[in-house]
Write a structure and sequence with these properties.
The structure holds two protein chains of two kinds. Chain A is an alpha/beta fold. Chain A has ten helices and ten strands. Chain A is 36% helix and 27% strand. Chain B is mostly helical. Chain B has two domains: 54 residues; 229 residues, MetI-like fold, CATH 1.10.3720. In chain B, helix 2 packs across helix 11, helix 5 packs across helix 6 and helix 6 packs across helix 8. Chain B starts with a helix and ends with a helix. Classes of the chains: A alpha/beta, B mainly alpha. Bound molecules: adenosine-5'-triphosphate (ATP) and magnesium ion (MG). The site of magnesium ion has 4 residues of chain A, from helix 1.
């Protein structure tokens, strides 16, 4: 089943064209990886899937992005879109409040105020983010006082708490140590049963380890999009091959 | 063991030896002198006032009614509190909301933002006597409020508005964008993001601005003499005249009759200011921690 269908997407930052004729179909309940050299537009495409680029002045879009067949740049409620398409950022960005309030922030935003319900959501979200056991005794403590890896898993829990359908992850492990990274990778693989996951990564091994499909970007274009196995074992394009074998900046 | 110690000491010598460089030595001495001078001035002023004032402190200085016998500062003290509360309640919400509009809602770098910013900067550079004259012409005369706490309060709130706006703006700008992104990313709207994420994170900074503003209110004389007048009693209503501690001191020392009492009043004023400072930095610390 296809979750996202992106057709002929052009994106401009002012006069600079950051995405050129992007065509991609993202499958539901799969992990899709975006790879490519720095500045090629991976984050830009990711942000256009939940319209986070609305916040950037001078950002303009041509083309179509369909979520379950519905045009997300049409007449839709952006807040509802972002509830359905959650995001985890490169740098962990917990809010300066308690761990509990961080996770409860999303549900509260969407109108859940019953204490019993919130308690339940907080626990399941933290469990699903594989961090419940580490944090259950200090839910009332500030979220800024935990380690970077824990913060990132907290941010994943926070994103899960609004029960999204899609999770966008922009280099979620690039700021973390190997142990935290492998914890998060395991977590992502588990989450794919219930969520559609799109992940930007600079780490080839990570893409191989966790993703089902991989898109290779270069200078704002999708050069090649295929199963991860094909991309890494027999790429069809010369540029892809150069990049994955490390012969490329 | 001993040799390694020696090398450490030698290293230290090497590191500190740059003070032998004459320019840096002179600079160090200058910096040190400036610091010493600043501290000295503070202590001399406070010491002098305490020395002259404390012997003149007496209980009747705190009588509720002012007369020429007791030269009580109590009404002025109470008026100061009223004036502070009045000006702050007018200026703080207004200043915070305009700052929120400028940083969070208006398009960055738009004409309106620039105009408002230039206006605020100009306003904050105007001497307070000008505010006093404006208050006299507008609140006292045109609006027929007479010399009153209300006229004084409004005049002072105009005076501190730019200060509140600027410090709030700075505090809002200092809130990392990643907080905003995190909130929008969860499907929160602008309003919720601003009021539940951005504003609480900016509170210590905003509070610092409010503290500065309170300092200006407590210390203000020129803008008040022409607006809230110099009556030395507790006002019956906001439309009556009343003098604050600073105005009280100004009156005492310009009349020249009660210099001793003026010093005693100064002691109370200084204690008040120091107390205010402590309380506010304490609350700021509390808030930023929680
Ligand atoms: N807010 C912005 N305004 C203007 N140009 C931008 C903006 N954000 C990104 N760009 C430009 O768009 C291009 C794509 O940026 P993007 O952040 O999507 O790259 P990326 O593939 O995510 O790179 P990285 O791997 O370094 O994160 C870059 O050339 C970048 O300079
Ligand atoms: Mg990026």
């Amino acid at each position: 089943m296809e979750k996202f269908k992106i057709t002929d997407l052009d994106l401009y930052y002012g006069t600079f064209k950051a995405l050129i004729k992007v065509n991609l179909t993202i499958e539901a309940n799969q992990i899709t990886a975006f790879i490519g050299p720095s500045g090629c537009g991976k984050s830009t495409l990711l942000k256009s899937l939940n319209r986070m680029n609305d916040l950037i002045e001078g950002c303009r879009i041509d083309g179509n992005v369909l979520l379950d067949g519905e045009d997300i740049y049409g007449n839709i409620d952006v807040n509802l879109l972002r509830k359905r398409v959650g995001m985890v950022f490169q740098k962990p960005n917990p809010f300066p409040m308690s761990i509990y309030d961080n996770v409860a922030y999303g549900p509260r935003t969407h109108g859940i105020h019953s204490k019993i319900k919130l308690d339940e959501i907080v626990e399941t979200s933290l469990r699903n983010a594989a961090i419940w056991d580490e944090l259950k005794d200090r839910l009332k403590k500030s979220a800024l006082g935990i380690s970077g890896g824990q913060q990132q898993r907290l941010c994943i829990a926070r994103a899960l708490a609004v029960q999204p359908e899609v999770l966008l992850m922009d280099e979620p492990t690039s700021a973390l140590d190997p142990i935290s990274t492998s914890k998060i990778e395991d977590l992502i693989s588990e989450l794919k049963e219930r969520y559609t996951i799109i992940i930007v990564t600079h780490n080839m091994q990570q893409a191989v380890r966790i993703s089902d499909k991989t898109a290779f970007f270069l200078l704002g274009q999708v050069i090649e999009y295929d199963t991860t196995e094909n991309i890494f074992s027999n790429p069809r394009q010369k540029e892809t091959e150069d990049y994955i074998t490390g012969r490329f900046g | 063991m001993s040799t390694s110690k020696k090398t450490v000491i030698n290293n230290n010598k090497k590191l500190t030896s740059k003070s032998k460089d004459p320019v840096s030595l002179i600079l160090r001495i200058l910096v040190w002198c400036a610091a010493a001078l600043t501290i000295m001035i503070l202590f001399v002023i406070i010491g002098y006032i305490l020395y002259k004032g404390i012997p003149n402190l007496s209980l009747d200085l705190f009588d509720l009614e002012y007369n020429t016998q007791n030269v009580s500062l109590m009404p002025a003290l109470i008026n100061t509190v009223i004036m502070t509360i009045l000006s702050i309640t007018i200026a703080v919400p207004l200043g915070i909301f305009s700052a929120i509009y400028l940083t969070e809602y208006a398009r960055r770098g738009s004409r309106l933002v620039k105009i408002v910013r230039i206006t605020a900067e100009t306003l904050s550079g105007i001497p307070s006597i000008i505010y006093g004259l404006f208050g006299l012409l507008f609140f006292v005369t045109t609006l027929h409020w007479g010399f009153s706490m209300l006229a004084g309060g409004f005049t002072l709130s105009i005076m501190i508005l730019p200060l509140i706006m600027r410090t709030t703006e700075e505090a809002l700008h200092a809130v990392p964008d990643s907080y905003r992104e995190g909130s929008y990313g969860l499907g929160a709207g602008k309003m919720r993001t601003v009021f539940t994420i951005v504003l609480p994170s900016a509170t210590p900074g905003i509070l610092a601005g409010v503290i500065l503003a309170i300092g200006r209110i407590v210390g203000e004389t020129a803008a008040l003499i022409y607006t809230s007048g110099t009556v030395a009693d507790i006002p019956d209503s906001l439309l009556s005249s009343g003098r604050t501690l600073s105005v009280h001191m100004y009156a005492l020392s310009s009349e020249g009759l009660f210099m001793d009492k003026a010093y005693a009043t100064a002691v109370v004023l200084i204690i008040l200011v120091i107390l205010l400072n402590r309380i506010s930095s304490y609350t700021a610390g509390k808030i930023s921690k929680s």
